[in-house]
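Reopening this one. Same input as before:
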Amino acid sequence: MCSAVGDVGITVGDLVRQHRRAAGLTQQELARQARLSVRAVRDIERNRVAQPRDRTVQRLAAALGLDRAARDRLLSAVDGAVPVGPLEIGVLGPLLVRRGTHRIDLGSAKQRDLLGLLAVQPEQVSIVELVDGLWEHRPPRTAAALVHTYVARLRARLETPGAPRVLVAGASGYRLHLPPDRLDLARFDALLDGARDRPAADRFALLGAALRLWRGPVVADLGSGVSQHPAAVAAGRRRLATALAYADLAAELGQPAEAADRLRDLARDEPLDESVYARLVRALGDAGQQASALHAYAEVRERLVDELGVEPGAELQAAQLAVLRQSTVDSPESTVTRVPA
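Same output, byte for byte:
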C-alpha cells in the first residue's frame, strides 16, 4: 500500500517506472545495474513497498542516470506521493505554490525568495540581480553557485518528468516559465488590459475581478530584497491605482457597497494612504454606513497624527464632511457627536 498525498498522486514507483522506460531498460536490466533483485524493482514499481529505503532509491537513481533534480524529486517522493495537477503560483499576498489542491513546500527561505524574485518579473532575471535580491548587502563569494543550487532544488520540487521546465536557464540568468493563467500576477495584469476601453459596467466588473485576486501586499512574507524589489513595488502601485479607479466607477454606477469591500482590503495594507481612505469613507457613506465611515475617518486620522504628525488632507476632510452631511440629513442615529474632535 503506497503512501499518498490526497487521493491522487505520483508515487516513487511511478517515477521509477517512467524513468526506466525513458532509459529503455527492462526491470531485469535495471535490477542488475542497481544491484537489486528483480523482485525488489518490480515491487517498488507496483507500489507494493510503502517507503523504499533511501539507499535503495539512490541505487535506482544512479542506475537510471538521473540528474540531480530528478534524483531529488525521486527522493522527495519516498515520504509520500508527488501531487499531480497544474502548478500554480501566487504572489499577490504571501507566496503560495500548489499543484492541484496540494501546497508545495519550497524548502529554505532563500529558495522561497528566489522563486519570488522570478515570479514578480516576466522576463529573465540575471544572476547578478538574483544575488542582489537574495543577499542585498553582503553576498558570499559562492553566491552565484548557490543560486544554481537553489534552482536545482526548486526544480526537484516544482517540475515533473517529461513536462517543460518551470525554471528556464538563459544566457545570463533564469526566468519563470508558467502559463499566464497559472500565475496570479499575470492574471491580474491581463484583467487590467482587458478592462481598457470597455464600457463602464464591464470595466467595473473586470477591475473587481482583478482586485479579488489580492490576498495582501506582494510576497509580504519574503525577504525585503524581494518584497521591496522594484517589480513588486510596481505591482502594488498597480493595485492601488486599480482600487481607486474601481471606487470612482462604483460611485458613477451607484454601487458603493462593492467598492467598500475592496477598499477595506486595501486599507489594511495601506494604513496611511489618504486617497484610499477618502474613497472608503465616501463609499461607506454612500452605502448608508455612516457610522462605519466616520469610524474609518477617525481611525486614519489618529494614525496620521500619531505616526506622521499631520492632520488629514483636503481630500480626506472633504470625504468626512460629505458623510457628516449625510448623517445629519439621512441617518439621525449616526450623529455628529460620534465623530472625535
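So the earlier flakiness isn't reproducible anymore. For the record, The CA atoms of residues 26 and 219 lie 46 Å apart.
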